[in-house]
């Protein structure tokens, strides 16, 4: 962990459970991840170093112990392109392609796409590129679901 002092075992277990909820992991996925990381399916069975391993893994999957300051303190962008981006993001969440529909998760996606930390900092060209990317993603998900529906008949 990056802190000089590692939290106690009970605190690590608590943080891991918070991460499970924040990342919206279902029970089977959560247990599988624990087993992959440590060979144990319960945090209560783990040593402190194994708990740290799980915690570090959850951070690589997007868990943030503290919300990003730039997203929490900025007024949400409300221009038409930002509204469209948010709408597409929510649609992808409803389709099951996005696990976390929060503004923070969207900001992380925007940052991966543009290098800018939030929608407020994205120019028109970048916003258009994000919109097209999300629309193509949505189309791929809908096509895959349609194919799956046909194959299940």
What does this structure look like?
It is a single chain. By secondary structure, the protein is mainly alpha-helical. The chain folds into two domains: 9-60; 69-151, no CATH class. The protein is 65% helix and 0% strand. It contains seven helices and no strands. Helix 1 (9-22) runs parallel beside helix 3, helix 2 (27-38) packs across helix 3 (48-60) and helix 5 runs parallel beside helix 7. The N and C termini lie far apart (49 Å). The model has no long low-confidence stretch (mean pLDDT 85). InterPro entries: Phage_Mu_Gp16. It comes from Psychrobacter aquaticus CMS 56. It holds the Pfam family GemA. This is Mu-like prophage protein gp16.
Q: How do the strands and helices of this protein lay out in sequence?
A:
Layout lengths: L8 H14 L4 H12 L9 H13 L8 H5 L6 H16 L7 H12 L9 H28 L2
Helix pairs in contact: 1-3, 2-3, 5-7
Name its key features.
153 residues; mainly alpha; 7 helices; 65% helix
Structural class: mainly alpha
The arrangement of helices and strands along the chain is HHHHHHH
What Rg do the Cα atoms give? 18 Å
- How many distinct beta strands? 0
Helix content estimate: 55-70%
What form results from the Cα inertia axes?
A: flat
Report strand %.
Answer: under 5%
The low-confidence parts are: none
Mean pLDDT: 85
Indicate how many domains the architecture comprises.
2
Largest sheet: none
Give the termini separation. 49 Å
| Separate helix tally | 7
Q: How would you sum up this structure in a few lines?
A:
This is Mu-like prophage protein gp16. By secondary structure, the protein is an all-alpha fold. Helices cover 65% and strands 0% of the residues.
